[in-house]
Amino acid sequence: MRINATDLQNAFGKYLALTEKEDIIITKNGRSVAKLTRYNEPDYFLLHEEALKYKTTRKISYEEYRELVESSDQRYELIDGEVYLLASPAFDHQVAVNEIAWHFYNYFKGKPCRSLTAPLDVRLFGYATKFEEDPNVVQPDIVVVCDEEKVNADNRYEGIPSLVVEVLSPSTKGKDMVTKLNLYMKSGVREYWIVDLAEQSITHYAFSPERDIEGLTIFREDETVRSPLFPGLEIHLPDLFGEIRPKSRQD
């Protein structure tokens, strides 16, 4: 099927559903510019120029990304000019997020920092000096923010989280462990926790103020992950993974 870019923006959900049966060729000024295709992995779609993600020979601009977001009820991320459409997370993914969020809430209650869960747009710009130079928008599973003064007049957060947690899904593993790792490090995030339900592990990255990897530790079995940035913030792994169904731990 061939449609123009305006039709896609006006009825994105309709055409997304049609990708279950066929690819959608997107045209602009009568010329084919992109393809909307169903990604094989279950947890998210990728929109790609003549392949799997939605990108042309140039990066997708933040303005184009905003047009897409405003024309749909779906959730998206913009990373390095590529748009990722996020599907609803699995049950056990949310169990893990809620368990970690509970620990974080109890720790930060009454403190100047605050933990928040997705969906929350986080605007990052890597090594650039401002967002407009390298716009990226992500929705981490959990963030810890210590700069609430960066919430703007429209009640949107424009700061840099101090700590980020991502719970892996099979299809997001590469993105979370490589693409987002680099983005978080370059943008000034100080800690990054990667929770792997299948391996029952938490990979902990500590980043330096100079935006390099300062420490890397993988926690397993009956170990306890502790935050060097927030003394006393810790999670005993059996407390977390004991809440996850055995099938999820084996998949």
What does this structure look like?
This protein has 251 residues and is of the alpha+beta class. The protein has helices at residues 5-10, 12-18, 62-70, 91-108, 173-187, 237-241, 246-250, and strands at 2-4, 24-28, 31-36, 44-46, 75-79, 82-86, 114-117, 122-124, 136-138, 142-145, 163-167, 191-196, 201-207, 213-220, 224-226, 234-236. The chain has two domains: 2-86, no CATH class; 91-250, tt1808, chain A (Alpha-Beta Complex). It has seven helices and 16 strands. The strands form five sheets. The chain has a six-stranded mixed β-sheet with strand order 7-10-11-12-13-14, sandwiched between helices. The chain has a three-stranded mixed β-sheet with strand order 1-2-3. It starts with a strand and ends with a helix.
Summarize the amount of helix as a percent range. 25-40%
Named CATH topology of the largest domain: tt1808, chain A
**Would you identify the CATH H-level superfamily of the largest domain?**
tt1808, chain A
Distance between the termini: 36 Å
Domain Putative restriction endonuclease: 63-236
InterPro entries: Nuclease_put_TT1808, Restrct_endonuc-II-like, Uma2
Protein name: Prevent-host-death protein
